[in-house]
């Protein structure tokens, strides 16, 4: 299995699994004060799964081996989980959806009725009511809202960081067999180099001994030749 295809498919598995978690949490927030944020999270999660599906379909269509088949099983499992939670999210979205103009109209009518009844009850004391300066309250509310958005952004970044750490951990575990094989090859190569160094050292010593022996034989042969020449000369004399 090519390394990049295995890593891409494993990353798709983790992204779809994270999308399942995001869809589940967003579904629980539908119909609450965080309804708009929940719908936006659902939209992003569905877009992410669509992108993962495009990448994974190309990899799975190219070819299958034993290891890729195991990853395909994991991907199909998390994809089925996403389809299940997404169906529940769609059902919940339909139940909690309300047209914005209807809500505004209802709230406007309610405020109108309350205003009329309040005016009727307090018509005699209108001159005694003091105007309330709410600018400070609005500013404080805006600051608190900005802080809340910052905290939510930090929370989202921490979740992304945790997901990246988990993906990195799984990739390292996925490549552990290759690392072990490389370590074994390095150990074998080191042993072979050490054996070669020892053999070269022995060969060098043998070569030196051979040279000494050759020199000794040459000297002895030279002495013998000189002795023979001397004997011949003496015999002729």
Task: Using brief descriptors, characterize the structure shown.
237 residues; mainly alpha; Methane Monooxygenase Hydroxylase, Chain G, domain 1; 6 helices
Would you write up a description of this structure?
This is t-SNARE coiled-coil homology domain-containing protein. The chain crosses the membrane at residues 213-235. InterPro entries: Syntaxin, T_SNARE_dom. It is a single chain. The chain is an all-alpha fold and 237 residues long. Among the domains are: 1-98 and 149-176, Methane Monooxygenase Hydroxylase, Chain G, domain 1, CATH 1.20.58; 202-236. The chain has six helices and no strands. The longest helix is centred in the C-terminal third of the chain and has 61 residues, at 176-236. The protein is rod-shaped, with a radius of gyration of 43 Å.
């Amino acid at each position: 299995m090519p390394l990049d295809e295995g890593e891409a498919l494993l990353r798709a598995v983790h992204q779809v699994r994270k999308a399942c978690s995001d869809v589940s949490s967003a579904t629980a927030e539908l119909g609450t004060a965080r309804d708009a944020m929940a719908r936006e999270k659902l939209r992003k999660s569905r877009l992410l799964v669509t992108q993962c599906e495009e990448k994974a379909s190309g990899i799975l269509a190219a070819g299958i081996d034993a290891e890729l088949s195991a990853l395909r099983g994991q991907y199909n499992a998390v994809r089925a989980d996403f389809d299940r939670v997404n169906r529940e999210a769609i059902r919940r979205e339909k139940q909690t959806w309300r047209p914005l103009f209807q809500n505004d109209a209802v709230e406007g009518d309610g405020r109108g009725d309350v205003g009329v009844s309040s005016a009727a009850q307090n018509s005699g004391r209108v001159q005694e009511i003091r105007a309330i300066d709410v600018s400070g309250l609005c500013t404080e509310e805006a600051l608190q809202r900005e802080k809340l958005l910052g905290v939510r952004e930090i929370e989202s970044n921490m979740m992304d960081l945790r997901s990246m750490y988990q993906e990195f951990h799984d990739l390292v575990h996925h490549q552990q067999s290759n690392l072990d094989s490389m370590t074994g090859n390095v150990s074998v190569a080191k042993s072979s180099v050490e054996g070669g160094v020892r053999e070269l050292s022995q060969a060098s010593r043998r070569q030196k001994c051979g040279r000494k022996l050759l020199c000794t034989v040459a000297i002895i042969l030279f002495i013998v030749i000189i002795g023979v020449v001397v004997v011949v000369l003496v015999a002729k004399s």
